[in-house]
Design a protein that fits this description.
heterodimer, A: alpha/beta, five-stranded parallel beta sheet, two-stranded antiparallel sheet, 13 helices, about 35% helix, about 5% strand, B: alpha/beta, four-stranded mixed beta sheet, globular
Amino acid sequence: MAPPDKSNLPPLKLHVPEPKFRPGDKADFSELEIPAAGATPRPDEAGAPDGMRDLAYGLVRVLDDDHDAVGPWDPRLSDEQLLQILRTMALTRAFDERMFRAQRQGKTSFYMKCTGEEATSVAAAFALDREDMCFPSYRQQGILFARGYPMIEMMNQIFSNSGDKLKGRQLPIMYCSKDDGFFTISGNLATQYPQAVGWAMASAAKGDTRIAAAWTGEGSTAEGDFHSAATFAAVYNAPVILNIVNNQWAISSFSGFAGGERTTFAARAVGYGIAGLRVDGNDPLAVYAATQWAANRARLNAGPTIIEHFTYRSEAHSTSDDPSGYRSAQEREEWPLGDPINRLKQHCIKKGIWDEERHAEQDKELAESVRATGKEAEKLGVLGHGMHQPFRTMFEDVFEEMPWHLKEQAEMAISERKEKFPKGLPRGND
Amino acid sequence: MNMIQAINSALDCAMTADPDVVIMGEDVGYFGGVFRATAGLQEKHGKTRCFDTPISECGIIGVAVGMAAYGMRPVPEIQFADYIYPGLDQIISEAARMRYRSAGEFTSSMTIRSPFGGGIFGGQTHSQSPEAIFAHVSGLKTVIPSTPYDAKGLLIAAIEDNDPVVFFEPKRIYNGPFDGYYDRPVKPWSKHPASEVPEDHYRIPLGTAKVVRKGSDLTILAYGTMVHVALGVVEEHGIDAEVIDLRSIVPVDIDTIEASVKKTGRCMIVHEATRTAGFGAELSALVQERCFYHLEAPIERVTGFDTPYPHSLEWGYFPGPVRIGNALDRIMKD
């Protein structure tokens, strides 16, 4: 074909993506393609990625509209496991509610809920071994609940109080627990992605059996670290699961600004030669099954998996955000994949192992336990009320041993304290 | 040994001593590195101990952070310091803060090796000296050797250190000390006493400077290539200068600096890096604060200019004998 005559062409146009619904718009998701539960085949875990391309464009779903678990991805969990996942998701939500209020009451500076996304951390964590290392973003608090991490430690961290294991150094919710396989959360997005790959490479180099799993939001897949992680994971066949929690929103920008208008996020896997799964992120059984599949694959030395969890961020990005400024208030109710807790609850009721009364009773019990733990944590102080870690700890752990310049600065800081409190330092301070 | 051989020997010793030491980077594996620093290591220690990586500095450092979190002791190589910038987020936000933000639960015991500095017609992207960027980051140690003996001892100490270390290797002096006279034949290390390098494992503590020339007229603070350039100028001018090779710029050996300047009363700082907010500014401030009443002349900084590193005009940029000599004249006149 001859090159077109440029004088006849329309001027070039820059495409700036725009979400379908803005504040005041009626949300309508009827155009979203939602495959039926049970319809997606489940390939062999050790299979080659190029035989699985359709999975990156489909949607693995187990729970159907009648609340039954159907199809080859049904993980066939025991009644006990189902109720444990249900309880842990409900606990995560109860915790979020309480901590959000604590921020509004001025007990801490900041909080982030994971409402609507509980399955993507809780069900995933239950499908991993306790020894596997999780590299979470800031919205996977459910992993800690799934692993039995003491709730009071989370609250101490949020309040930056005298019991805070991280010594008040970190912004609230940037938890860390090596013993629970929960890697230290960083404020810098997607940095944990190549780190998870490196951890998995080390495990493989050492002939270990442990694997790594990383989480990031769909917005952060635009970071360069996403690309480097996927490249290294593919090159070294690293035993790692790279989770993308596609909750449709990165603060105020919709998934189109991360490239979501033209393809799925799971489809990124195809270009790297990695197995890619796209999963109903509000279906706890589908999340469990996909994680279990990817974990088996990693343990079989069959390589990494990218899992896109298709879900919806039901609440504000953080306590500093107001979504009514950029998206339709109706989206949450109209979201076609429902609520993960409600869906698992209905499934358990359908199976005859649960009922509305027991669920309401459990919610009350969880709320009470969160409240009581909150009271305990508050005894160790809340932000700004003076019960924090000793002042000198600010200078510790910068290096293994404190060099001369930090020793000098620590002395200066402590003498400033003495000047500020001439009648003696307040309780819990030195 | 020349400096490359000393570095290769250090890596070999560290890998032999600790099975968790792993080397990774672009071209470091089978080929042995573009400067030959890792030659033979893959063959000797295996592909999982010394391996090639994709061309991705953020990936190399990010993966190394994860390996260190697992408990290994990675030694990633960045082929040129000029190309370390894609890895900066992982170095600054992650490796340097890991111990602090996790209250010691996770650490980043790693040594990032990278050839740096000019004087080789490397142009803009094979000549830079970005040490000040790293010196400014809490939680990082920055080390720069100037001889084969120091390179081996410092590199082993850096690898065995439990903090992240940026280890800059002055590539101009890989093969021999350089006095700044680019138009004279290159001297090989074999004629220099510091080329006597033990085959065995030894360490030089980080954070310790070395007085390479004792003197009473003034103190010259330098590191890397500039140690040799400064020494040459001092001999030519017949000035009894005390020349200190800092070796570590963070933590810097303040006691050695302070004692020397209080003795001589004059201080000159020499580095290749650009002037504004270079590490010389920090050194100058430290000396001014601690030795103010002993100073008999303003502190001189002899540095590269505040321009990108030029190709054809390299010897007009490089802080060579003329610029250092003029500064010596000024500081000794006061």
